Hints:
Elements: E1 2-6, H1 14-25, E2 58-61, E3 75-80, E4 83-88, H2 112-123, H3 129-141, H4 149-163, E5 171-174, H5 175-186, H6 220-226, E6 231-234, E7 250-253, H7 271-278, H8 282-291, E8 293-296
Parallel strand pairs: 1-2, 1-6, 2-5
Antiparallel strand pairs: 3-4, 7-8
Helix pairs in contact: 2-3
Amino acid sequence: MNLLMMQPVWIPNLHDLARLLWLDAGFPDGGNVEGANLEGEVALSEGSHGHKPLSPDTLLITDCQTWSRKSRTHRALIRTPEGTTYLNVPVVKEDRAKPIHEVRIDQRSNWINPLLRTLEYNYRNSVFYDFYEPEIRTDLEKGSETEYLSDYSEHLWSRIFTYLELSFRFGVIRESERAWSTAQASMGRSSSGRSSSGRSSMDGSSTVQASPAKSSTADPDEMAETMGADCYVQEWESRHYMRQGDRAATFSVDIPAYRQHFEGFEPDCCLLDLLFQMGPESFRVVEGLAAGTQMMSDSQGGD
């Protein structure tokens, strides 16, 4: 079984997508990630709920880790005339030392309008901005009525992968759900729905008042072993806010260059950049990304 460990980044980028394509393709022993399935059951886009994954491979959303301002759970990189800048979602100050799944969005100020103005200023001349803007505006505005940061990212992942017409066969597990289920099992009770400390489950039923869900282990190697993974990969550029496992596999990712509306090419922008620039032709970049992603040996390093 292949395993990908990622925090609930707010808006994924092409490095994240390369890892998702690898997981979907199911290459445990290296080689180019070719033929990534884009037509199976939807796992991260709209319509995914209720579908049984077609693959045992798993994306583990590590939302029990302590939130870090260095992470991408609250920010996403976009193009500007000078290069790049971050869009940011404000978080409640008192929550900054909490696990990610307990971090709330700070709604005390009107943060969504400045964010939308920044996006418009930098992308209004992009080829497909007008095509996607109404729906993406609505998606982003949902953050102003969403309490928890990780719920906001889950919504945006679903919408963005729907626009890109991407679907995946692997399973998706939140670490907080897994930890909560373990805690309830130890109390002789079963869990129902999506639940965590102080939050209700999806079906509206009350949750058991157990201790807050915490990571079962801070060691990625141990977590991968516990989950039965033969091979696991961690989030891109996460060494500053996630513990790195000794046995984690590494990637070489060749990001395909596409035309951006400002001079030069910035490969680390979030997927909104790809949508606004390439629109329905984004699949060409996705295909190139899958073909240019390769597992590296320990001596080769990675991205």
